[in-house]
Amino acid sequence: MTQPVAQASQARGNAALRIANMSARRQDRAGAMRDFIAGSQFDVLAMDLLSDVAMVRLADEVAAGGDGFETTFLTQLEYVVDMVADRGVTIVTNAGALAPEALAIKVSELLAARGADIAVSWIDAGHCTPDQLAGQVPADEPEPKVATVSYGAFGIAHALDGGAQIVITGRVSREALVLGAAIAHHRWTRDNLDALAGAVAVGHVISGGPGATGTSRGSTDQTRSTIDPVAGGYPVAEIHADGTAIITRHPGAMGSVTVGTVTDQLLDGIGGARYPSPDVVLRIDSIGIGQEGFDRVVLRGARGELPPDAQAVVFVWETAAGDDSLVRRELRWLSRELSTCVVTHPNGSNEPVGGPLRTAPVGKGDARDALTLVPELDATVPGGRTRPTALGTLAGVRIGAVGAGCNIAIWVWDDAAFAWLREAFDIPAIEAALPAVSGYVKKRYELPNLRSVNFVVDGAAPEIISRTMASIGDELRRADVDVPAEMLEVSP
């Protein structure tokens, strides 16, 4: 039997964990996972198969008597059973969706038929019943199509500690697949807040798949684009014991890994300097980022704080606006009583894994004190003539969902450009550039370490938010701004 990652880490001491992310879809070719594993070396493969649209589709399938899990994982696994067994690759995946147990049974049957000695664990789906939500959501609110607890990473870590080589979950938190593997590998506890925060930053970056290598639409450094899971630019990370990490890519992938592509991913879906995950609050304003070589970007210095005193639950509605079918997603922080997941180990035993014992209040990224982790940048706006230029010539733009609203991030490449950006863009300026959000921009905050100015949009109707997120990125990149001509010489 191969060694699962938690056991193998003891033999390697403090060696870095090498983890790859592969976001898969039902339309992918069947041999994609095989080619992905064959073409690179890593300890863990994180397979992220769930989107809001996928969850709605799976809920409809369950209502019609279907399975409730992503069958793509089974299809892909058939091609790679022997390779996983021989190489000892650990797989963590959220393909279980609404029925992790059912998928785990199917996977175990496949492995048994192939004679593969690979241990499988699963974690409950975290599906919220109306009784669990009673009193926590407005009584007159439409019932969501799906409501699931966004479990943290320690359930995955316990599954790996229990001997699993394949761990199947439902829709856990965005960073949980990566963080859970890192916890098991490095033997972190809940008190290792800075290391946990570092791995959350990594998970936030590589869970975006090809965005981290600039091969997805909207990436500031976009080069080539393809939906193929191997060639499409999927990232690999090396996570060290202190949470420091290197972001790189699959050697057969398109694109490149730069400070720009990684910054773009870090700014996706944050709502302030504090980014709350179920296991730790990451201080986004603490992260140091730098180019360490070709296709290698380092993330270091992440600071972590106590996790939120509430549990994240993801609500998804299927709505209609005119002739367009929309899926609306909202993450809400509800009672910590929902935090306990149940891990079923390879030997069939069940282990409840509770949430953190020590927590602290935190809002949508709101600071509890002044942001002092990053010194002010010593730069001034260049003088001389200016000229009207499309903002996208100088800056990157990233739009991401935050609660029932969204975050608009504008970032630049050098200190002088950031000095200009922070002067040029206040709330009236962003509302003038984007009339669709006028009156709904509730907060502006800066992240000097990422040379970013950010705006939180909230309070608009869900249909407005959905339409706005689909269009304002391109609209803002095209917006004309007066820019010192000298700065255009150092733009992306």
Automatic annotation (TrEMBL):
Residue span(s) of domain Acyclic terpene utilisation N-terminal: 17-313
Highest taxon, organism lineage: Bacteria
Name under which the protein is recorded: DUF1446 domain-containing protein
Organism (species): Dietzia timorensis
